[in-house]
Write a structure and sequence with these properties.
Number of domains: 1
Strand content: under 5%
Largest sheet: 2 strands, antiparallel
Shape: globular
Length: about 300
């Protein structure tokens, strides 16, 4: 076995798995609390990237301010989906299938809206330099140690993803608002009976989930480009991480995403790189056959 290749693929797997974990917690926080299959989580993902690109080029904002603007747009669009899409259906006692169809419709329509507004071309993240010219906003430096290499964005993916995941988990477990989320997720009827405002909790989890999706969108935009169809494949990865890691457990979802990333990367030892999506879906299929509650989930009683 080529141990140098194994080490490099392990590092790549940790980077990819950390990103999967972030996507999983973003999707899982909303799904586990509201039971809405929030496919439209792709919208705040794309809104974060396009918000940063637009504000940097049109408003001439510096990089970090543009990134903050992108995150603001992610949260705004996530809440707009909730207020204009989901809440009207909930007020009419719509079924979960109706909510999913609303989510699906918005998800299909949004890339077309992006193409109308920004065009069909991929757009890199650029800022104005001291000469007043647009240039690449991010210098993705490469760090090497012997035969191992890793980029600056990869390092940031690992650090930022896990800092945010830990912060969300601590928030949910240790704060009053977080315990309201747990109560509504565990027993919605009892939570409502003791006075927990379901609408307020939904607003909170959608804001948090959209913020995490926006961070993920910024990573993709900074490393590659902003694209009208940039988000859906990553949203599906987040959904897979939720069910692979364990429904009902944010920690399980995070570690499930990490395991998926490692499996996807290490599969390159034996399979062509383009087989990695098959590995991800096959892993989900196998784990659900063996443990329907997910890798780290608890069986229902």
């Amino acid at each position: 076995m080529n141990f140098e290749l194994l080490a490099q693929l392990t590092i790549a797997g940790i980077v990819l798995g950390s990103f999967y974990a972030l996507l999983g917690v973003s999707f899982g926080l909303v799904y586990q609390t509201s039971k809405i299959f929030h496919l439209a989580n792709a919208i705040p993902f794309a809104a974060g990237g396009y918000g940063a690109v637009w504000s940097a080029e049109v408003l001439h904002l510096p990089l970090f301010v543009a990134l903050a603007f992108g995150l603001l747009m992610a949260v705004v669009f996530g809440l707009l989906i909730l207020f204009l899409g989901y809440f009207p259906v909930m007020r009419r006692n719509g079924a979960l299938l109706s909510l999913f169809l609303v989510s699906l419709g918005i998800t299909v329509a949004f890339p077309n809206l992006l193409q109308i507004v920004f065009g069909t071309e991929n757009i890199p993240l650029r800022t104005y330099n001291s000469e007043g010219e647009l240039s690449s906003a991010f210098d993705n430096r490469v760090f090497s140690s012997g035969f191992l290499t890793i980029t600056l964005i990869d390092v940031l993916k690992i650090i930022v993803s896990w800092v945010l995941i830990i912060a969300v988990v601590v928030f949910v477990k240790r704060t009053r608002s977080g315990r309201s989320i747990t109560a509504l997720r565990t027993n919605p009827t009892m939570a409502t009976a003791v006075g927990i405002d379901r609408k307020r909790v939904y607003i909170l989890v959608f804001a948090l989930g959209s913020f995490l999706a926006g961070v993920a969108g910024l990573f993709v935009t900074a490393e590659f480009v902003a694209s009208p169809v940039m988000a859906l494949q990553w949203t599906i990865v987040g959904f897979i991480a939720v069910f692979f890691g364990g429904i009902g457990s944010l920690v399980g979802t995070a570690f499930g995403g990490l395991v998926l990333g490692l499996l996807s990367s290490l599969s390159s030892l034996y399979l062509p790189v383009n087989y990695s999506p098959i590995v991800v879906f096959a892993s989900l299929f196998i784990i659900l056959l063996i443990r329907p509650q997910g890798l780290f989930g608890k069986a229902s009683v």
